[in-house]
Amino acid sequence: MPGQSRDTPPLILFNAAPPDVAQRTLLTCLHSHTWAQRVAGHRPYPDVPSLLAAADEAAYDLSTEDLTEALAAESMPALPEDTYSAAHTALNAAQAAYETKFGHVFVVCLDGVPAQESLDHVLEAIRSRLANDPEEERSVVADELRGLAKQRLRHALRGAGNRATGH
Fold first, then answer.
1. Domain extent for 130
2. Quick one: 81 and 129 in the same domain?
3. Residues 20, 16: Cα–Cα separation, whole Å
4. Which residue, 59, 66, 47, is CA-closest to 109?
């Protein structure tokens, strides 16, 4: 943004960004146009916790269609590079079973899960959630998407940069 210093806090840049730029930034956190418009439309935010609370609140109101839109842009969590091939095979099989049952990719928020425990966490979560009925799983998916959105939003604002400004 012209006239802005690289030292300007990311939240200030996000608050000042044109609506379409702010919405593009938000769509990298959760690919729901409804959610991105709601969060961007309530700017300016006085602080990051207020932004995260608004993002969370906006995600609670997403329709089935909005959740479907968000899920279509998701992918399985990345496994650590040193993960052994048997784990990849187990995860691929569990993912295929999940997608067959629920019709969309498995999502899980790994915020706060140590990297060395991520594989076990993902496998445990996918296996346990395969027991859910579709309505119960839809609720779990919505919670996981909210967690992913907040995690990604925090990361975007820490923002190695200033994705919020289009840099």
1. 76-141
2. yes
3. 11
4. 59
Please report whether residue 112 resides in a domain.
yes
Interval 45-63: pLDDT, tens? 999 999 999 999 999 989 9
Q: How many domains does the chain have?
A: 2
Which amino acid does the sequence have at 45?
Y
- Per DSSP, helices labelled H in the chain are 10-16, 19-27, 33-41, 48-60, 64-72, 85-102, 118-129, 134-158
Residues 26 and 62 in one domain: yes
User: What does R_g of the chain's alpha carbons equal in angstroms?
Assistant: 17
Helical axes 118-129 vs 85-102, angle rounded to 10°? 30
Q: Is 71 exposed, middle or buried (0-12, 13-18, 19+ CB in 10 A)?
A: buried
pLDDT value of residue 83: 65
User: Do 48 and 17 belong to one domain?
Assistant: yes
